[in-house]
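User: I'm writing a short methods note and want a consistent example. For Sugar phosphate phosphatase, I'll paste the sequence; you return only the structure tokens, no commentary, since I'll be parsing the reply automatically.
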Amino acid sequence: MAEASTIVDRTHPSAQAPKKTTLQLANLPPKQQGFGAQLYPRTPSRVDPNNPPWPAYRGYHEYSFAHATMGVRLPTILGKAIDDVVKTLNDEYEEERVVDLTECISRMEDLMDDLQGNSKLRPIIDDGEGDIPLWNKEIARYFRGKDFMNAPWLFAEAYKYRRMHECFSLSKYWKSYDVFFRQKCETFSRSGDAVFELSTRFAEPFRQADGATVAEQLEAKRLMFHELTQICLWGNSTDLSLLINMTEEDIKKLQSTGGDHLAATEQNILGNDLAKIWEYVSSDRFGTKEKGGRLDFVLDNAGFELYCDCVYADWLIQSGLCSQIRFHGKRFAWFVSDVTRQDFDWLLNSMVYGHRYLRAVFPNASDSDLASLKKLGLRWKEYVKKGQWVYEQHSFWITGYTYWQLRDEAPDLFIHLADSDLVVFKGDLNHRKLTMDCHVPSETPFPVAIGPLATEPGTPPIVSLRTVKSDVVCGIPAGKADQLDKDEPGWKISGKYAVVLLSEGRKGEPIQF
Ligand SMILES: O=P(O)(O)OC[C@@]1(O)O[C@H](CO)[C@@H](O)[C@@H]1O
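Assistant:
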């Protein structure tokens, strides 16, 4: 045991840190000015899910879409989901299954109470899914004691959808029930004009004009790339959760795929890197000399949007630009209309085998329209068979983490994506996850706003194809957001504006963990 006299006396004046230490140094370089432009308010190492680089949007921010979503949209969506399950229940006759489904409805009602009563976020009950540890670790570490309204909107909203899955995953017979499946099929069938407009143009494989020079061929490809990228972009406008108040006419207008309409809508792309993206995908850096590149889609909505993604993916293969497309979807029903494997299979199978169904839902379609859809579907299924199209569903996509945490929380996925030549993130929610859904100044360059996914060694080139449907906006010219705030106060949630943004990444550099 130490002698009493050797114990350090922390109160003695000699134990205090000196007030000021002055160094006499004469050889340091002179002080400079001008640091800090476009730096994060927080250094990346201090960013965490509850502390994005700029302040997060939270449900209690009354001025934001977060408030409207948490207070009105989510309860409405949950209410409709309950209606859907009741419909299924009415068709069921086996007692055990009926009782089991009734319990799912009770859990949904509890969730409704939690949501409307602004309860604290509890851990997700272990239902055997692979994402549980990720969820509960994140809740414990960053959101203990937080409730639906004061947690960052992005997390609280994702959490609500995970809780909705829990209502079913704890059951015996209804584990993979998708409350949105009916709605997703309906959006496809409500989009008849645009569906056949595309199928009749693309059913015949892509061919260059006879006798075209190399330069003409390249220009033809460039133009096609330009238009199809926009079709893929605007296919996202018809998001189901926003369709609640839309007439069929409105939807048709949004989905119009005619050339003139596209030229006009390009003016609504506020941050537009299309030319840069073409420059990259048509260069030697994309893929190898012998074969085209690998492109990954991080998917958003099923139904019409997925169909547009597939039309685009088809052309990317046909044109030789890509040799492989990997589609990343969700493992189970997630935000209202997000793609699951079931949706992906449903689309391809209905196109090929759903003749009777298609006839019923598209009563105005001609035989030739339906045949064009089948031809397209057959080709797409062939891609799947040959491995040119691959569908994947990593657990990370259905967690509450944003993509600022992708590398640390899902290193295997990061390594996998690093092999891609281009990762295309579709839609608003993916954009929110890329940017951590915070008050980033709107003129901030996209690569700055997505942080580590642009700056870490090995990050692949990334594109965000997003129609703007919520508050976060980056990568647009200075002053544009202020002007729109004045002229069109609802511009951030209308889906009328979009961004097509590129981060070049650091592909090929050794990944470090
Ligand atoms: O991701 P998407 O389909 O383009 O848009 C989805 C959306 O309507 O719902 C999300 C969640 O509320 C919001 O990010 C956005 O407003």
